[in-house]
Amino acid sequence: MTASRSSKEAIGDRLAEARERTFQLIEPLDQEQLNRVYSEILSPLAWDLGHIANFEELWLVQTIGGRQPLHGDLGRFYDAIENPRRSRGELPILRDAELRSYLADVRVRALEVLEDAEIASDAEDPLLREGFAYEMLIAHEHQHNETMLQLIQLVDGYEPVRVDSGPAAEYPSDGPEMVAVDGGEHEIGAAASGFAYDNERPRHAVRLDAFEIDRTPVTTGAYLEFVEATGAEPPMHVERDGEGGWLRTAMGRRDPVELDHPVVHVSWHEADAFARWVGKRLPTESEWEAACAGADPDRANLDQLAFGTAPAGAYADAAADCGAVQMLGDVWEWTSSDFEAYPGFEPFPYPEYSKVFFGDTYKVLRGGAWATRRNVIRPSFRNWDLPERRQIFAGFRCARDA
Ligand code: AVJ
Ligand code: FE
Predict the structure, then answer these.
(1) For residues 57 and 209, what is the distance between their CA atoms, to the nearest angstrom?
(2) Atom of ligand 1 minimally distant from the CA of 383
(3) How far apart are the two ends of the chain, measured CA to CA in Å?
């Protein structure tokens, strides 16, 4: 069965929507800001933009269409593995009008290739089966939007084109500090069909002992008590106001911190230290996924619309079956787990998406943040970063043995 015209149109529409959001994020920025290196650990935005187009060219034009690239071997400068973030400012990458043309020209060619592509649920090429490559490309642009938002936090005076005040106006809910999850066999990972990344497969059973997990993410207020008591660093983008209070400094602003919101921009080491300080521990990623069962991704603070978090305990009507709220959205949640392959893992479609990162170097985060596009997030979605990193929109909740 070949995909109908209308499903190809739907893919085209979704590619266009992803691009609109990318352009919306950079609309307030000038060329100097797009090309500037703000941080050793983040790419200049111009690199992300060129990389988004180059990834599209590589998969949707060269690999599926068998066509030649527009700029010879320019792609080597957009290879994320070959070019560490700290070096990306000096690369001979495309900038300004040339960069805009490249984004547009690649898109025209990708849509031409899509016209002739054999997308089908049973397509022989696994890259085309269920439209995998197109789903991957849409998700990839969405994921880079979040990396871009990490950098945008460092841009003084950035004014978002659009802010949805809905999430911030959600009401917190009352409930117990922790909720219980039964022990036993839990199915972990993505089912065999439907889009997911290689690292989410194969789905497999994991035996868990009964445990308890915090009903809500840890709040900024609770975290700052830990900071005051132990001398730990405040979260990134938070500083003292000189009068005993705290300010949030992202995007060059100086606003009072929202003490009742989930803490964000803390490292794994800091999350782990907080958990031990309160006599708890971080959940494993399997525990996290078991606790997430039944959570509603459509009632969650995702999609970059709010430019901030909702109060801890919001979206209680969309709680997981165990009673935990905000498992999805608001802040990524650090887990105690290293980013490792599931038993029977097969790299697909390329080992540099997941395989090269497996091991004990990276820690797994789950659930997505306000800055994550909704389409990226599934209960099985695995994010990872170095345990010392704080630029990601990461908070956490604690667990303990039952
Ligand atoms: C899943 C966020 C760790 O940014 O390195 C983007 C996503 N992979 N382009 C990353 C990704 C290829 C990835 N993370
Ligand atoms: Fe990428």
Answers:
(1) 47
(2) 1
(3) 50
Interior CA angle at 75 toward 70 and 76, to 5°? 145
Could you tell me where the beta strands, DSSP code E, fall in 63-215? 178-181, 184-188, 204-208, 211-214
The string of pLDDT tens digits covering residues 161-197 is: 999 999 999 999 999 999 999 999 999 999 999 999 9
Angle at 88 between CA 82 and CA 92, to 5 degrees: 95
CB proximity list for 278: less than 8 A, separation 6 or greater: 226, 398
Distance CA 272, CA 282 (A): 6
Give the separation between CA 165 and CA 159, rounded to whole angstroms: 14
pTM of the model: 0.97
- Partners of 188 in beta bridges: 204
Q: What span, in angstroms and rounded, lies between the C-alpha atoms of 57 and 293?
A: 37
DSSP, residue by residue, 265-288: S--HHHHHHHHHHTT-BPPPHHHH
Instruction: Please calculate the CA angle 387-86-239 and round it to the nearest 5 degrees.
Output: 55
Nearest to 148 by CA among 160, 166, 136, 137: 160
Nearest residue by C-alpha to atom 14 in ligand 1: 383
Residue 147 beta carbon below 6 angstroms from any ligand 1 atom: yes
CA distance 89 to 92: 9
Indicate which ligand has the atom closest to the C-alpha of 52. Answer: 2
Q: How many residues does the chain have?
A: 402
pLDDT per residue as tens digits for the range 118-150 = 888 888 999 999 999 999 999 999 999 999 999
Contacts of 98 (CB under 8 A, 6+ apart): none
Beta-strand relationship, 246-248 and 204-208:
unpaired
Q: Sheet holding 246-248: strands in order across?
A: 238-240, 246-248, 255-256
Contact 250, 153 (CB under 8 A): yes
Best mutation site among 143, 357, 361 for ligand 1, i.e. most ligand atoms within 8 A of its Cβ? 143
